[in-house]
Amino acid sequence: MGVQDERGEQLALEKKPPIRTPLRGPAETRNVRNVDLLFAVGGWSSRDDFSCMECYNPLLHEWKVISPVPTKCCGLGVTSLNNFIYLVGGFDGILHLSSVARYDARTNEWKRDTAPLNEGKRDMGVAELGGFLYCVGGHDGITCLNTVERYDPSKNEWSKVAPMNIRRTTLGVAVVNGYLYAIGGSDGKSQLNSVERYSPEENSWSLCPALGTCRENFGCAVFQGKIYVVGGRDSIVEHCSAECFDPLRNQWSPVVPMKSKRNKVCLAVANGYLLAVGGFDGTIHLNTVEKFDPETNTWRLFTTMQQRHPGGGVGVVRMEVYE
User: Fold this and answer.
1) From start to end residue, where is composition biased (Basic and acidic residues) (predicted)?
2) Is the dihedral of CA 185, 186, 192, 197 positive or negative?
3) If you count DSSP H runs as helices and E runs as strands, how many of each does the chain have, helices first?
4) Which residues pair with 34 in a beta bridge?
5) Residue 273 belongs to a domain with what CATH number?
C-alpha cells in the first residue's frame, strides 16, 4: 500500500542520503563535536512550486538545502521530540491537515508512521513538555480553536487534554519550569495580548500577566530561563519589537527591537544563540537570520538562508558531527 496523504494519494518517501559534514584530515585526527543543527522546514505560498527543508551547520556557518518536505503546506507546526523533528498539520491550499510527519536527521529520512491529529488544523502552537508533544489551538478552516492535543510517542496516539480559556490561532507557545504557556495570537476577531499556562499535573489552564503588545504570528522561544517574543503583527502593521517574560518576577519587559520587521518569524535557540529566522517585513518574505546578544542588548545579522519559508517552522536537533 505504501503511505498515503489525506486525499488518498500515494506518497513517494524515498530514503535520502544521510547528512554528512565535510571531514578534514585523516580519520585518526578528526574531532567530533556535539552541536545544534538548525532546520528551517517547509513553508509555501500559492506562487511557489517547491517546499523544502534546509539545515544550518554552525561549524561551516552555512545553510544547505537537504530535502523536500513530505507535504507542501503552510501554517504547519514544527518542533523537536526525542531528536526527531515533527511536522504537524498545516494547510495545503485546499485541506486543513491532520497528518504528522517526523524527520530523522541521522538518516536524512522522513517517516510517516506517527498517528494523525484528531482534527485538521493550521497556525497552531506545538511544543515538547515532559516527553509529550502538545498541539495547542489553531484554526480548522471554520473557527479558531481552544482545543489542546497531547501526543504520547510510547503509544503513538493523540489525546485531548483540558482546553484553553481563550480560543487562539497564530499564537506562540513555550515551556518553562514544567508549565506550557500559550501566548497572544488571534481569536478570529482581533489580536490578543493575553497569556495563559497549562499545568500537566492539574490538567488545567490559568491566566498569566499579559503581553505589552497585542500580536500574532510572532516568534517565541525560551532563552536563559525567560520567554522571548519577537516580531509578528497587530491589526495594522508588522513588528520588529520584542519583549521577554521572567517567570521569577512574573512580568514582561521590553527588549531592544530587531533590525527588520518580521511577521510570521520563527525564533529558535541553537548553540547558545537566540535566532530570529525569516519572516515577512510587509513587502517581501525574508531569508535573513538575526542573532540577539543579551550582553550588549543588540541584534545583528547572523546569516542568510538559501530559501524563503513563508508559513514554515524551525526545529533544532543536537548531533555529533565531525570538524
Assistant:
1) 1-17
2) negative
3) 0, 26
4) 320
5) 2.120.10.80
